[in-house]
Design a protein that fits this description.
single chain; 133 residues; alpha/beta; 5 helices
Length: 133
């Protein structure tokens, strides 16, 4: 198992980014590596980090302003070769179809529920790391 996994978290709201960090803890599950976070508050920062590489999973806030995580997700899936999997934070369960449109691999509702979030993040890390192995 690799020593750490890098998770990019995009939200214009510092409280949302904190919810993600707290729900994840050191690692979202015992069978995945410890997590290091890269936090971004703007879409430009997200694409700068993705261009540098090394991101294992992206967590994108669908309610972010000025560009929501769904739009960022769709753009990164179009523009980034072998884009990392995306966990989308959505405002309501009824928005799950929009997460599908954006091509996110998973979606959970806000506010972040720690057990549900950690399980979704761990599943994406497992799939990403098994592909890289």
């Amino acid at each position: 198992m690799q020593p750490t996994a890098t998770v990019l978290v995009y939200s214009d709201d510092a409280n949302t980014r904190e919810q993600v960090r707290l729900a994840t803890g050191r690692r979202p599950a015992a069978d995945v590596p410890q997590v290091e976070f890269i936090e971004c508050a703007t879409p430009a920062a997200v694409f700068k980090e993705l261009d540098q590489g090394g991101i294992d999973v992206c967590v994108l806030d669908g309610e972010a302003v000025p560009m929501g995580g769904m739009g960022v997700c769709r753009q990164l899936k179009d523009e980034i070769f072998q884009a990392p999997p995306v966990l989308l934070l959505i405002g309501r369960p009824q928005d799950a179809w929009l997460a599908t449109w954006s091509r996110a691999e998973a979606a959970v509702t806000l506010p972040v529920e720690p057990v549900e979030f950690a399980a979704a993040l761990a599943a994406l890390l497992r799939s990403r790391l098994s592909v890289e192995a």
